[in-house]
UniProtKB/TrEMBL annotation:
Domain of life of the source: Eukaryota
Subcellular location: Cytoplasm
Protein name: Protein C10
Main location: cytoplasm
Keyword Cytoplasm attached: yes
Family under the similarity heading: Belongs to the UPF0456 family.
Keyword entries, A-Z: Cytoplasm
Amino acid sequence: MASASAQPAALSAEQAKVVLAEVIQAFSAPENAVRMDEARDNACNDMGKMLQFVLPVATQIQQEVIKAYGFSCDGEGVLKFARLVKSYEAQDPEIASLSGKLKALFLPPMTLPPHGPASGSGVAAS
């Protein structure tokens, strides 16, 4: 069974900041940067391929860090960590900022479609 010290839900906001910073730092480690670059190259900016190639590598990198804090070393551990971080985002702007930085490391930037909301009176035909 799990050891008594494996209580990830007990992370305080301060501890969550430390873990987030470590996860972000892990992405910049040379071997992980190479893994992410290869995954991005394979994905070719295609969202379906991002899920296929980039997300698994990003998940593995996170797992390597968060397992030291009692999270299981699988997708469920990453989800529990993500939920914990999300629960602190509204209360702590620094956690929200770190979380945004982490997401930006493996999610492509979202672009608005060119037919976004019209500003002012526009091209609507009458």
